[in-house]
Design goal:
Among the domains are: 58-159, Alpha Horseshoe (Serine Threonine Protein Phosphatase 5, Tetratricopeptide repeat); 477-632, Ankyrin repeat-containing domain (Serine Threonine Protein Phosphatase 5, Tetratricopeptide repeat), CATH 1.25.40. The termini are far apart. It has helices at 3-29, 32-42, 45-53, 68-74, 78-86, 101-108, 111-119, 134-140, 144-152, 167-173, 177-185, 200-207, 210-218, 237-243, 253-262, 277-283, 287-295, 303-313, 319-327, 342-347, 353-360, 375-380, 392-400, 415-422, 425-433, 448-454, 458-466, 481-488, 491-499, 514-520, 525-530, 541-544, 568-592, 607-613, 617-631. By secondary structure, the chain is mainly alpha-helical.
Length: 632
């Protein structure tokens, strides 16, 4: 090696050694507790052991006050928890919410840590503020091995303040066969019920444990016992299938259902709402359970039951389930009390599969529900969030079978209006391409354009305008699409309509133009009338914009997607914040297009009066400046 090479290597070694010496010195200079905190933050097991060897406090607390041991157990850092215990940490350490280390380990199903804690003196009978014990936590998580160990160590179920389940039902719900057997051998009442009216057999059936169900049946559990919802053990199987099994257990509910039926369970039992087990199984799309129920000789399988089952199965596009019901004689054109047919439900489904099956079996496309709507109207509308846009294939299938494209229901609504209101642009394009008149009115004077505006479907609004929809059409209340867009506080829609030539001075039957409606920010004329022009506390436009009759018999407003629960004050603040910027832009756009701020309605109020009445200072300032310019 050359001299430069030797010099370079020597320099590198000196630098590395200096860094090690510095880090070692820095490490020794720090207090053991600080060194432990840094080691935990870095996640270095070696550094943690070194800090503990230097007598760092094993009961150290984090910045939020939680003991490190409690945090380690909660976050399943088992190695750290064991190291802290070996260094002398208190095994009965209590974390946030009164949860001990043992509670956290039991809840996580960490058997080695539970065993270590108990060996070091953790109290297995300790209760938290809700009177729950470590055994309760283990059972709620269905950690049978942990629960078994705690019972062997003297653990007991606590009388939880928020869950008054009896031990036998709690063990059955967790699928803890040995625990159930011990309680029964100890004299536990097999017919006892928890706070929800569930028996041990109901809990076992829902847990997906056939051996546990078999044990309870052999001990005399009642098959026809009912909980508060009117569900029997056989009926309890279906809601569990819908939710799914926890902890990766293999669901064996079909086997349990067969076992219960063989023992004489009633397949015709109904719950408090009158729904039978068959109806619940169909709604849950559990074809194997449906097969079992229909195969029972004692099962009532009349046309009414089969038709209702077919109606429930139709929206889910489960072709195999539909074929099974139809093969058993389900009437393909069955209608419920509202006149809805399986074909109508299928038209609202996620795809054309169910529609194709029903049409092939002779489903009629001309039947109407109680509100006069046909399957075409159902295919054109969307019933709620999460269903997606209806593709055109369902509509095409119905039209190929001779369905009328421009039928009206009892309220005069057409499929085009349904598509416009719900924003189904694919259906709208198909209907317009087939020559459906764009300006047909319903009984209340609404056109498809007005329904799009009321439903705040601005993309559909643009599409209808491209097909020459009458932009200044008024409904029976005298409102135009521009007024609805102004009420909604949508500057994009207002700008679009103004650019297309919408008349800005048109007034509704109460004498308010788009500017006044934008200033008021509310669409509920009836509410203003009832309160003498003063909105009730928290009432805003969005609350009223979306009320529509379920049967479409009366005119109303389309529905908004559901929101999370919020207080009245939170809702009011949120709506104010959402509308503040949009309404200001709408007012500016209307004023720039010639809206008259001096215009009064039938009550003699101007847009400025409405802005002040509704407590909207930003809008009021804009209108005051506009009035000043007008006077000048």
């Amino acid at each position: 090696m050359t001299r430069p090479g030797v010099f370079s290597l020597t320099a590198t070694l000196v630098i590395l050694l200096s860094g090690y010496v510095y880090n070692r010195t820095e490490e020794l200079r720090l207090s053991p507790d600080i060194a432990l905190r840094r080691a935990i933050r870095r996640g270095s097991p070696a550094a943690i052991r070194k800090a503990l060897a230097r007598k760092a406090n094993p009961n150290l607390r984090r910045r939020d006050g939680e003991p490190v041991l409690a945090w380690a157990a909660r976050e399943q850092h088992t190695a750290l928890a064991r190291a802290l215990l070996e260094a002398g940490a208190d095994p009965n350490t209590v974390g946030h919410g009164g949860v001990t280390v043992l509670f956290s380990a039991a809840r996580n199903g960490d058997l080695p840590l539970v065993q270590e804690l108990v060996r070091r003196g953790a109290d297995v009978q300790r209760r938290n503020v809700l009177q729950s014990t470590a055994l309760d936590y283990a059972l709620r998580g269905s950690h049978v091995e942990v629960a078994d160990f705690l019972i062997q160590q003297g653990g007991r179920i606590g009388a939880s303040a928020h869950e008054s389940d009896v031990p036998l039902v709690r063990f059955a719900r967790a699928g803890y066969v040995e625990g159930v057997r011990r309680l029964l051998n100890g004299g536990a009442d097999i017919h006892t019920v928890d706070s929800q009216g569930h028996t041990a057999l109901m809990a076992a059936a829902a847990s997906g444990k056939p051996d546990l169900v078999q044990l309870l049946l052999e001990r005399g559990a009642r098959l026809e016992a009912m909980d508060r919802d009117g569900l029997t053990p056989l009926g309890r199987i279906v809601p569990c299938i819908q939710v799914g099994c926890s902890n990766g257990r293999r669901c064996r509910h079909t086997e349990i259902a067969q076992l219960l039926l063989e023992r004489g369970a009633n397949p015709n039992a109904t719950d408090r709402t009158g729904s039978s087990i068959l109806m619940r199984a169909v709604a849950a799309r559990q074809i194997q359970i449906v097969r079992l129920l229909l195969a029972e000789k004692s099962a009532r399988v009349d046309a009414q039951a089969l038709g209702t089952a077919l109606l429930l199965a139709a929206p889910h596009a489960e072709t195999a389930l539909l074929e099974l019901l139809l093969d058993l004689g389900a009437p393909v054109n069955f209608q419920d009390q509202a006149g809805v047919t399986p074909l109508m439900e299928a038209a609202l489904g996620t795809g054309p599969g169910a529609t194709t099956t029903l049409l092939a079996r002779g489903a009629r496309v001309d039947l109407r529900d109680a509100a006069g709507a046909t399957a075409v109207a159902y295919a054109a509308r969307r019933t709620g969030p999460g269903l997606g846009r209806r593709d055109t294939r369902v509509l095409e299938l119905l039209l190929e079978r001779g369905a009328k494209i421009n039928t009206t229901d009892a309220a005069g609504r057409t499929p085009l209006m349904e598509a416009a209101q719900t924003g189904n642009s694919t259906a709208l394009r198909l209907l317009l391409a087939r020559g459906v008149p764009v300006d047909t009115r319903d009984r209340h004077g609404n056109t498809a354009l007005l329904w799009a505006a009321r439903g705040r479907q601005w993309a559909v609004l643009n599409l209808l305008l491209e097909h020459k929809a009458a932009i200044d059409a008024q409904d029976e209340a005298g409102r135009t699409a521009l007024i609805y867009a102004a009420q909604a506080g949508s500057p994009e829609a207002v700008s679009l309509l103004l650019a297309r030539g919408a008349e800005v001075k048109t007034r509704d039957r109460d004498g308010r133009d788009a500017l006044a409606c934008a200033a008021a920010g509310i669409a509920a004329d009836s509410e203003l009338t009832r309160t003498g022009g003063k909105p009730s506390p928290g009432v805003r436009r969005s609350h009223y914009l979306i009320m529509r009759s379920a049967q479409y018999a009366d005119i109303g407003y389309p529905s908004l997607p559901p929101r999370q629960k919020e207080s009245e004050a939170q809702r009011r603040d949120r709506l104010n914040q959402e509308r503040a910027s949009g309404d200001a832009l709408v007012v500016d756009a209307l004023l720039a297009s010639g809206a008259d701020p001096r215009q009064t309605d039938k009550r003699g109020r101007t847009a400025l009066d409405w802005a002040r009445l509704m407590g909207r200072p930003e809008i009021a300032q804009r209108l005051e400046r506009a009035l000043d310019r007008t006077r000048a």
